[in-house]
Automatic annotation (TrEMBL):
PANTHER family: PROTEIN YCEI (PTHR34406:SF1). Belongs to the UPF0312 family. Gene3D superfamilies: Lipid/polyisoprenoid-binding, YceI-like. SMART domains: YceI. It comes from Actinomadura rubteroloni. This is Lipid/polyisoprenoid-binding YceI-like domain-containing protein. Signal peptide: none annotated. InterPro entries: Lipid/polyisoprenoid-bd_YceI (IPR007372), TTHA0802/YceI-like_sf (IPR036761). Residues 2-160 form the Lipid/polyisoprenoid-binding YceI-like domain.
Amino acid sequence: MDPLHSSVGFVIRHLGISKVRGTFREFATTLTVDGDDIAVTADVEVASLDTGNSDRDAHVLQPDLLDVAKRPTLSFRSTRVERDGDEGTLTGDLTIGDVTRSVTFDVEFGGLGDFPGAPGKHAGFEATGEIKRSDFGIDFGAGEAILGDKIKIQLDVQYTEPA
């Protein structure tokens, strides 16, 4: 993975009337291709949450909301990849804390190219999907009316060909 040209983003509704966007600054993902077999893994450090407001981020990571001590990482392991030209779907097991659920992302292949000054080919992908935080046991108690249950996820990842 090329971390300088990759991102993990999300969008969640606030008060049901607006959207809060954020990213995770620390993550790692791998793409393994062996003939027609494709496998994808991803690990995200929850503490690297960044919504552009450090006070909000600190609050969201506390036990009454996301609880980073209980849920330090988000992990994804693919179980199926389906391709149709430059588009497809990526299905796998997403683990948040101690809960694992199957999720599917729509994937768009951005292309393959050379990057000046760097060896090997670079491949770009965009993956989008949606999860419900309630499916992963993330309950905000009195804050339920403040933050939506649906979380949209957008991954923009660039991989480099191994040397």
